[in-house]
Design brief:
The protein has 110 residues and is mainly α. The chain is built from 5 helices and 2 strands; from the N terminus they run ββααααα. The protein has a two-stranded antiparallel ribbon. A hairpin with a 4-residue loop joins strand 1 and strand 2.
Length: 110
């Protein structure tokens, strides 16, 4: 699908990114898919909640790197938040915080 930005293959443990994206969108897409890897492997959640979590994860990482993706991320989060169970999202905030910390430690070693 030429409109697909990226996806994480759980079975292959690989992230695939659309080569036609600009650099900022590629980095953000990689962070989003890393969010899926760290937050959702072996966890059963509805898709809307997974997408909100992964994009929130990507937004926080990008902000930490000094890259503003508000215009990209906010629309995506709002779109998926309309169908996500807000109560479950709030309960999963601690998991997102842990995943962000793990990811930041990993990239600090690069």
């Amino acid at each position: 699908d030429k409109d697909l930005e990226a996806f994480y293959s759980y079975s292959d443990d690989k992230i695939f990114v659309n080569k036609n994206l600009d650099t900022l969108k590629k980095v953000k897409a990689i962070c989003h898919e890393c969010g899926h890897k760290l937050l959702h492997q072996g966890v059963i959640l509805e898709r809307a909640l997974r997408e909100v979590e992964a994009e929130t994860f990507a937004y926080i990482i990008m902000k930490h790197l000094g890259l503003d993706t508000t215009s990209i991320s906010l629309d995506y989060i709002v779109q998926w938040s309309q169908v996500a169970e807000v109560e479950r999202l709030v309960l999963r905030m601690a998991e997102m915080e842990k995943a962000v910390k793990v990811f930041l430690k990993k990239i600090a070693r690069l």
